[in-house]
Amino acid sequence: MKKFAFLLFFLAVGLISCKKDVSPVTTPTVDEIARDTLYSVMNRYYFWYKLMPVVVETNYKDPYTLLDAMEYKTLDRWSFVQTYDQYVAQNTGAFVGHGISMGLDPFNQVRIAEIYHNSPLYSLGVRRGWIVKKLNGTDLAPIFLANDAAAYNQLIGASSTSVTNTFLFQTPAGKDSTITSTKASFTLNTVILADTLHLKSGITGHLVFDEFIPPSVQELQSAFTYFSQNNITDLIVDLRYNGGGDLNVLTNMASYVAGSSKFNTTFLTLTFNDKNTASNQSFNFTSVTGPLSISRLVVITTRGTASASEDFINGLKPSFDVKTIGDTTNGKPVGMVGFAYPSNQPVYLFWPITFSLVNSAGQGDFYKGFVPDKYVPDDITHDWNDRSEACLKESIYYLEHGNVSSKELMIKQPSTGVMFPEKPLKNNNAYIIKK
After folding, report:
1. Cβ atoms < 10 Å from Cβ of 162
2. Tell me, which fold does domain 94-187 have in CATH?
């Protein structure tokens, strides 16, 4: 396996200009050159290049519109274009806001579904599960019931440190609490929670993990050192909102879970299109400090569990009887290489699907997602470490009884699934690899 020296690597893409027999000669714009560069990239590196629609590149004004026209839409839900500044902010965890996601519970109440430790509201005591009755004096429930993202975005305002919002919360004690919060600039934590559960079956590690980005490596080291010091025998990994991320970070995390016996064996294998077979490669489990020695692994999933999170499940399946609790996952068994334009001072990054992934047993192609061993709706009425939280409760039941429960639902009715994250969703779970 090739060694991967540094995560922030982009495959250099040469500038492409089109000479046209027209007079007078006009200088192509940055967007036009970027469009033409993307056209070349898609024809050479796109995983489904043989199945792309035939297009005339000059009919499109920029790389965004060209990519939309060229995608093989039968399977591709993920290829995208972003600006370089968007990438840097996303990949370093940089964020401006209150640091929350809000969702609609089964009883048509808006609640905090996720909150980051460095957020202004977290420091004021707000936690997952709190009811949000009003925002700036406006009832939130009708907006969520209508799934009106535009109204929500207008109400909460821009991602700027000059924006202040007033929230009317109902605390778990049933008391109303009005809190005024100004959006702040801070770094997101990706390890939302790392604790231990003392169960009848033994000491179990419990990890809630948000996304695979380079800063996660240090956070994961701290979490798994804690698990190792506490001699856990089983592990619950909550990936319900984890939309994926970096393959190197994924391999690092999986290596802790797999244990020392799997060191330098195959974790995942990447296969590129027939123009780039020389790039085919395997990622092996690596040596980490404090690898675990566990017997059972439970993963909590939702439709938002995608890409690297699904590959965590798939890549560990040959080593463990991995149980999944929650909902069917997204279904993304493919990944991308990032192409920078221009290569010296990037303005754009292109992320076309460029490879497929399988585990050491050759298993992949999970386009329909992983169906859970037990369906349990996402329960945003409780905090992560509350043993009454439906998914955690079912995970504990499995570990203590050796099978899932016979109950059809762990809460009265399924979640609506309506959720407005303040943070933009991980942009289609790109993998960054060195070629």
Report:
1. 9
2. Pdz3 Domain (2.30.42)
Contact (Cβ atoms closer than 8 angstroms) between residue 314 and residue 330: no
Beta-carbon neighbour count of residue 27 at 10 Å? Answer: 7
Question: What's phi and psi for 309, nearest 5 deg?
Answer: -65, -40
pLDDT in tens, 133-164: 999 999 999 999 999 989 999 999 988 998 99
**CA distances to 163, 335, 430 from 187, in Å:** 18, 26, 20
Please indicate whether the domains covering 94-187 and 191-415 agree at the CATH topology level.
no
Task: Give the whole-angstrom CA distance, residue 268 versus residue 250.
Answer: 10
* Chosen CATH of 191-415 out of 3.90.226.10, 1.10.10.10, 3.90.660.10, 3.40.50.1100: 3.90.226.10
Residue with tokens 């992983």: 370
pTM: 0.88
Below-50 pLDDT ranges, the chain: 1-19, 410-416, 425-435
Is-cis flag, bond preceding 142, omega within 30?
no
pLDDT tens digits, 359-416 = 999 999 999 999 999 999 999 999 999 999 999 999 999 999 999 998 655 443 444 4
Q: Where are the domains of the chain?
A: 11-82, 94-187, 191-415
Q: 432, 338 in Cβ contact below 8 A?
A: yes
